[in-house]
Amino acid sequence: MKPIQVGLLGIGTVGSGVFNVLQRNQTEIQRRAGRGIKISMVADLDVARARTLVGVDTQVVNDARAVIANPDIDIVIELIGGYGIARQLVLEAIEAGKHVVTANKALLAVHGTEIFAAAHRKGVMVAFEAAVAGGIPIIKALREGLTANRIQWLAGIINGTTNFILSEMRDKGLDFAVALKDAQALGYAEADPTFDIEGVDAAHKVTLMSAIAFGIPVQFDKAYVEGITKLAAQDIRYAEQLGYRIKLLGITKQTAKGIELRVHPSLVPAKRLIANVEGAMNAVMVQGDAVGTTLYYGKGAGSEPTASAVIADLVDITRLHTADAAHRVPHLAFQPDAMSDLPVLPMGEVITSYYLRLRVADQAGVLAKVTGILAQTGISIDAVLQREADEVGGEGSTQTDVIILTHDCVEADMNAALAQMQSLPTVLAPIVRIRKEELA
């Protein structure tokens, strides 16, 4: 049987990985797919560089639309990135009747509803395993492997840059700014790391997983997003002393009121496997009612790990290329006419527990006032740790740190309590609040 013909838009780090792995493992891939898969056309602005990567047997052009217009191309791989021209090209490829494979989480998190609807109308597939957690097959696990389950929640370390920075801060006692510079020097962080360190990249990914887990439209604009830029070395140290590690988590849960969709630093018990995911690695925990807790771990980025996911999508499309569109796996796991309108909850309605660090005057009655405010707000305390003043500010210091762990409460109640505590004259600095997730 003639190989299925693929057009590749963008042959950068991931694109070259896709080409190389497909060439290297062509025999194994063909045995699995049932026919060959050939990248016969590549579009890249740097034509000369692209030709050196793909050789003479692959057509290279500088116009992506020439790939889309080619009637021989069955599948278009979009690896350009971003929201702009990538959106136009993906929609044009769909309109031309091409299947699409993309690693573009930002595009799908923001414009996924439009793109999936267009693909449904045209009877083509949009596959995006590589958009979340690199080489970890988490999309396939959620969409197919766990299809018997009512997913209750998932939580993931889904940004390698921030996990590397947090690992460095914990292992070496570094402040955030120093750990970021180290990450940039080693190539783990971009020159402009904003999307990573502010949590936006993780929010794109958890938005997609949430849609698949709960059968809701992609709604990135409703996600709560908080990065790691305000974390201090002493909080990571205090968390460790209390038996926790701090990780940037993407979390989504189904509750009686709706869907939680949030990204923020979280204290995780050190005994949890996910708390021990270090460096640039990724991991996702999923809780299903039938299967219980499952964990998916691996490389979340890189040329060949991401290529592995792209090629897995190519194989899936090749297998289902001639199947009736109604019998393919739905883009977001649930049939399009069975999607839910469950609301995404505002952060003020989320229920979780907290780590609080207060820099206070070292004098009698301070702790009683703080705990009194929490009690009045209906927030119960799990643990209190008060540091020696000398340890915090040196010999003769008149300041100390009080660390409080709370039980679960509504975020709006915690916000009210924090405002009251912050107004106390004995509270000498902005209160640090980090959410705590037991993941039990």
Describe this structure as you would to a colleague:
The protein has 440 residues and is an alpha/beta fold. The chain folds into 3 domains: 168 residues, NAD(P)-binding Rossmann-like Domain (Rossmann fold, 3-Layer(aba) Sandwich), CATH 3.40.50; 162 residues, Dihydrodipicolinate Reductase, domain 2; 87 residues, ACT domain (Alpha-Beta Plaits, 2-Layer Sandwich). The chain is 38% helix and 24% strand. The strands form 2 sheets. Strands 7, 8, 9, 10, 11, 12, 13, 14, 15, 16 and 17 form an 11-stranded mixed β-sheet that branches. It has a 6-stranded parallel β-sheet with strand order 3-2-1-4-5-6, with helices on both faces. Helix 8 crosses helix 9. The longest helix has 18 residues. The chain starts with a strand and ends with a strand. The mean pLDDT is 94.
Keywords:
440 residues; alpha/beta; Rossmann fold; Dihydrodipicolinate Reductase, domain 2; Alpha-Beta Plaits; eleven-stranded mixed beta sheet; six-stranded parallel beta sheet; 16 helices; 24% strand
> CATH top level of the largest domain?
Alpha Beta
Number of strands: 17
Q: Please summarize the sheet with the most strands.
A: 11 strands, mixed
The CATH superfamily of the largest domain is NAD(P)-binding Rossmann-like Domain
Q: What coarse outline follows from CA principal-axis ratios?
A: elongated
Average of pLDDT: 94
Global structural class: alpha/beta
Q: Could you please say which CATH topology of the largest domain applies here?
A: Rossmann fold
Q: How many helical stretches? A: 16
Share of β-strand residues: 15-25%
Cα gyration radius (Å): 24 Å
Q: From the 3D coordinates, which CATH architecture of the largest domain would you assign?
A: 3-Layer(aba) Sandwich
Question: Which residue ranges are poorly predicted, with pLDDT under 50 across at least 5 consecutive positions?
Answer: none
What's the end-to-end separation, in Å? 50 Å
* Percent range of helical residues: 25-40%
What is the domain tally? 3
